[in-house]
Amino acid sequence: MIGVRSFRIAVSAMAAALAAPVAAGAQEAVTERVIKAEHARQGVASDGQSIYAVDNNVITRISLADGTQTGEWNGDPKLFPHLNSCTVVESELVCASSNYPAVPQLSTVEIYDLASLKHVRSVALGAMPGSLTTLDRHDGEWWATFANYDDRGTPEGRSHRDSFVAQMDEQFRMVRMWGLPDTVLERLSPSSVSGASWSEDGLLYLSGHDRPELYVMALPQAGGLLRHVATVGIASHGQAIDIDPADKGLIWSIDRDSRTVLASRLPDLSAD
Q: What pLDDT does 199 receive?
């Protein structure tokens, strides 16, 4: 059994690690707007006119014009135990969902009508190589993240290192899958990827569970690991993110402690 003093040292070490700044030379995303959102606990999506604050089984639509709430969906916690992230695709809000922290890991894609926020259909993925935490549409394909953790919600023998980014077809069937490099895995520990959004210039922005930073990734020319292009500091601390479809240089994120949604200007990485 761990002693009280050892436990306090371990907790202090973890707190210090989470508070540690991003890597030297990293660039910063500059916060431009903060919007109050009571249900900003899992993530946020944007359609350019509204944002959608995501909780475990609640989605709230907020107008960007004046910050007022314009719609809300509430789901049965037994059917929707853990919504993770969402993205807007045409007239629908498409969300990654899982049964976390239960095992075996069973994930679904939950789809909502954008105008009414009514739940319209569910796609059961069954057992996958982790819990589905992110889903995005890019280059005519679906892109997903399957997460594993060091503590709970993960089958025995797996850890946060067994987290993967996958390309999927129209029926959400796996086409290709990549692992993450050590430079990102060491920052995600003991959790995993919580947010992912493709930029206009073909870079994949990942966010973790707690740290105030984004990991900018690119598909590799060869090999099974994504390429770590840059680390970008951001004011929010992890969870799901979404690059604005109307302003491709703006990324949306959440701060769980203050129940707010942040809009941040991404740095120009074209010279990197």
A: 96
